[in-house]
Every structure is written in structure tokens, then in C-alpha cells.
């Protein structure tokens, strides 16, 4: 990691671990300004969690925050709104989470609210989850079918094939049903998509016919 990235992460860790002042807020806003900030926050949070032996505790905290804040659009809009007084938002935040999550997790959310970038919270949670998976050598494989095939012989064979193909990882399978793919299967391994769906075949066939005409 280059020195600039190290400095960014160092600053982020300091901000999460202690109360934020207005002077720090001004400096901090110059450091983090784009979408990559979610990765920076997540990395800073993970480094803190690792140093303090709280990886799973903070992961659990973030799940609590997700289910209670991001799932409820009204609550999320309240904390996201820059038209609502910041002190009021912080008081409500403390009332909701003060005794329910760790101080480090609370400080992370407070920082995002104070900088009016709470909209990146979901991305931060996803990135933190990815870092946890990397730490535990876990790879997530998402399998999408047009109907429920979770316990079928064909699905078990497919899972065995994927497991043999990625033998150096602890594979966690997730299953999704999407009738729009019509048939076949779509496999997502990290950022790579293997589309063996009937929908894709029909799309390609339609495209071929159009080219002939």
C-alpha cells in the first residue's frame, strides 16, 4: 500500500476512534470525496476491529444498523436529510444506538451523518463484509435459477463442481429465484458472472436473426 493510502486509512481510523471536532471535519472532508470513500471507511473500520479483536462484534453491529436504519426508509431519510438539524440527528442516533452497538461502530455512523454522506453506509457495510470474507478465506457464490432447485440432484452436482474448482476457499452458497431468466442458471463468483440462462440464449438468438435480416 502506498504512503497516500496509508495516510488516508490512518486518518480514518483516528476519526472513528475518537470524537470528531469541526477542525477535523474540515480536513477529513478533503480526504474523502468520492465513491471509493466507502472502501476507505470499511478498510479503516476493519483495521480497527482487527486490532481490537472485534471483527465479528462490529460485523454484528453493522447488521443491526442495516436492519434498523437502512431497511426503514423513513428513518433512513431522517438521518440522510441535511435540512434536519445535525445536533437533533445526533441526539436521536444516541437514543437509538447508544446501548446497542459498540462505541467504534457508533462513531463511524456519527461521522457519516456529520459529513452528510450517510448515503454510503450500505456500501460501507458491503465492503466490510467483503473484507471479513477475505480475512476468513470465504468466497460467496450466488446461484440464480428460474425455480427452486436448492435440494435437487442437479444443484448438488453443480455445487460439487464449483467446490472442486475452488478448492482453496471456504465456499458459501447463496440461492436466488428469478423467473425472468426463464430457465438454466446464472452463477456469480465474486465479480464474475457465468450466464447459462435461457434468457441469454434467446437474446443471442434474436440478435443473430436481426443480423441476418
Plain-language structure description:
Helix content is 62%, strand content 13%. The chain is of the alpha+beta class and 213 residues long. A four-stranded mixed beta sheet has the order 2-1-3-4. The chain is globular, with a radius of gyration of 22 Å. The model is unreliable at 19-32 (pLDDT under 50).
What secondary-structure arrangement, pairings included, does this model have?
Layout: H1 3-17, H2 22-31, H3 37-52, H4 55-70, H5 73-80, H6 86-97, H7 103-114, H8 121-135, E1 138-145, H9 153-165, E2 170-177, E3 184-189, E4 192-197, H10 198-212
Parallel strand pairs: 1-2
Antiparallel strand pairs: 1-3, 3-4
Provide a concise account of the structure shown.
With 213 residues, this protein is an alpha+beta fold. The chain is 62% helix and 13% strand.
Structural class: alpha+beta
Helix content: 55-70%
Count of extended strands: 4
Q: Please tally the helical runs, counting DSSP H or I stretches of 4 or more residues.
A: 10
Amino- and carboxy-terminal Cα gap: 54 Å
Tag the structure with descriptive keywords.
globular, alpha+beta, 4-stranded mixed beta sheet
Amino acid at each position: 500500500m502506498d504512503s497516500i493510502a496509508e495516510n488516508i486509512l490512518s486518518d480514518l481510523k483516528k476519526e472513528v476512534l475518537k470524537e470528531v471536532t469541526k477542525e477535523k471535519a474540515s480536513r477529513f472532508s478533503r480526504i474523502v470525496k468520492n465513491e471509493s470513500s466507502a472502501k476507505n471507511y470499511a478498510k479503516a473500520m476493519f483495521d480497527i476491529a482487527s486490532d481490537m479483536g472485534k471483527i465479528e462484534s462490529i460485523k454484528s453491529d453493522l447488521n443491526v444498523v442495516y436492519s434498523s436504519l437502512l431497511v426503514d426508509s423513513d428513518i433512513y431519510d431522517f438521518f440522510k436529510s441535511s435540512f434536519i438539524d445535525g445536533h437533533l440527528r445526533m441526539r436521536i442516533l444516541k437514543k437509538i444506538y447508544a446501548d446497542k452497538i459498540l462505541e467504534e461502530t457508533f462513531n463511524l455512523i456519527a461521522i457519516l451523518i456529520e459529513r452528510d454522506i450517510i448515503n454510503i453506509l450500505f456500501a460501507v457495510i458491503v465492503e466490510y463484509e467483503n473484507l471479513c470474507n477475505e480475512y476468513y478465506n470465504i468466497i460467496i457464490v450466488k446461484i440464480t435459477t428460474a425455480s427452486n432447485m436448492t435440494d435437487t440432484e442437479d444443484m448438488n452436482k453443480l455445487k460439487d463442481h464449483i467446490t472442486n474448482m475452488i478448492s482453496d476457499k471456504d465456499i458459501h452458497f447463496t440461492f436466488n429465484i428469478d423467473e425472468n431468466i426463464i430457465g438454466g442458471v446464472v452463477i456469480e463468483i465474486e465479480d464474475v458472472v457465468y450466464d447459462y440462462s435461457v434468457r441469454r440464449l434467446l437474446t443471442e438468438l434474436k440478435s443473430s436473426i436481426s443480423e441476418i435480416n
